[in-house]
Q: What sequence folds into this?
């Protein structure tokens, strides 16, 4: 059955649609088996295509543009990074009622990282710092300057102020709203990034890390990839680490006080957004975001 636009701009995506898109636009892969991957996150419907590829279709307008952005930049960044990333091999076009561009990428084996595997691992903390260090040092010959590519420009913490304060008020019966407000105010008042703009992942948290045999193996989902202030990538220190491993991460990455303070703000605002949106209906999200909020309060 073809995809159709629904009132909330979320097209219906089923296996028959994905099969038809692949077979029509990429007939060289028409004979490969297709299997849906669940759970696949909130932004994309994902199907494994054969043994070596994955098909990713955006679920909603918030994920638009990711296919073309990742296709343009990930192949250039991948050779410089110490962990595997999902290098795209093709971009599909809207068709059969499905309204947006979609992607075919190399399949990466692994399990989604868990706090149990990462929290107390100094080695994993150092490895994540090494990945971000390598990403920030990437300078492709045609690397754009900050602001020249709107799809590589992320909003700042100030853009999230109203929503974050509303969320703090909403969770006041569950968390210490005074302490949350203090962390948020400190992040907003911290000095901005004073160095040349660098690459950041933009959604660097436990759910976008893969492990094999208990070791980090890959970083996925670069929809938030951008150039500018890397503070948003400090979020991973509060989603996957304990206080001790967080110290190792911060030291290895060489994070200054202002960037760390802004990073705590990013961890807090993203956790609050997810908590107020999904915690009532998804116990897994409730547990993850409760931990993230609590760790952001610790610092």
A:
């Amino acid at each position: 059955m073809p995809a159709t636009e629904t009132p909330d701009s979320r097209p219906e995506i089923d296996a028959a649609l994905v099969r038809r898109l692949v077979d029509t636009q990429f007939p060289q892969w028409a004979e490969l088996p297709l299997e849906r991957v669940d759970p696949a996150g909130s932004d994309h419907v994902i199907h494994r295509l054969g043994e070596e590829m994955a098909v990713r279709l955006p679920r909603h307008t918030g994920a638009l543009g990711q296919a073309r952005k990742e296709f343009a930049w990930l192949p250039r960044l991948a050779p410089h990074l110490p962990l595997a990333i999902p290098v795209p091999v093709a971009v599909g076009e809207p068709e059969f009622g499905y309204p947006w561009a979609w992607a075919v990428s190399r399949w990466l084996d692994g399990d989604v990282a868990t706090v149990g595997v990462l929290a107390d691992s100094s080695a994993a903390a150092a490895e994540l710092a090494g990945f971000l260090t390598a990403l920030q040092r990437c300078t492709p010959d045609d690397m754009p300057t900050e602001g020249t590519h709107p799809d590589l420009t992320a909003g700042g913490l100030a853009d999230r102020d109203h929503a974050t304060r509303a969320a703090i008020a909403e969770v006041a019966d569950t968390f210490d709203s005074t302490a949350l407000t203090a962390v948020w105010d400190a992040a907003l008042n911290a000095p901005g990034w004073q160095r040349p703009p660098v690459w950041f992942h933009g959604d660097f948290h436990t759910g976008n890390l893969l492990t094999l045999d208990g070791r980090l193996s890959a970083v996925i989902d670069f929809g938030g990839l951008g150039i500018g202030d890397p503070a948003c990538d400090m979020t991973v220190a509060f989603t996957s680490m304990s206080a001790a491993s967080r110290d190792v991460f911060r030291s290895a990455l060489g994070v200054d006080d202002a960037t760390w303070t802004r990073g705590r703000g990013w961890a807090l605002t993203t956790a609050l957004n997810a908590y107020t949106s999904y915690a009532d209906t998804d116990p897994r999200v409730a547990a993850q975001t409760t931990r993230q909020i609590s760790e952001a309060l610790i610092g």
Summary: DSSP finds ten helices and ten strands in the chain. The first strand starts at residue 34 and ends at 37.
